[in-house]
Design brief:
binds SN-glycerol-3-phosphate, about 220 residues, single chain, alpha/beta
Length: about 220
Amino acid sequence: MKIFIDTANLENIKEINSWGILSGVTTNPTLAAKEGKEFRLLIKEIAQVVDGPISAEAVAMERDEIVEEARSLSQIAPNIVIKIPIMPEGLAATRILSREGIKVNMTLVFSVNQALLAAQVGASYVSPFVGRIDDISYDGISTISDIALVYGNYGIETQIIAASIRHPLHVVEAALAGADIATVPYDVLKMMVKHPLTDRGIENFLRDWEKIKNLK
Ligand code: G3P
């Protein structure tokens, strides 16, 4: 399972990218609004940092306007993917865009049926929102495993991005459920790398090394 970062904060993206583990970035209007920067400039800067798909969301609600906005956003950099909410106009726009070779990440997905529809129109990615499904007392991870099963049954190539990840266990569960990608917030990525036994192990090794490092 590949790891994307789910943020529009350039400093956080640069820091995690320096670990060498990032395969892409997802943003949404809420994440972009936190940065207080012109949207296209922000996306351009992110696309210059990370060598992988960068999702930028279209906010138009009508088919032809979504297509126009998507075409324009895709000009920002070659690695831009257009996030489009699953809805009838979004599906129709994705059908047009996928035929033009513009990659779409169909977002705000909460059910297997929505994921199945996204695949019909050639979406490159589908983003089920695990945490928000959990928020309404359903099981976000089972939605991921059900989509993975259905896609596997039919050899569907749309990649599943486990989104709305809230904690490290969501990442483990998304990987076990068959997600192709997890898009993970900065704080959760920082938690993923930490383990108290690793910290204690490093401390002990460094202390013991001090005892022998000057021996001849
Ligand atoms: O990628 C979608 C994600 O940003 C939504 O996360 O925590 O707002 O449900 P959240």
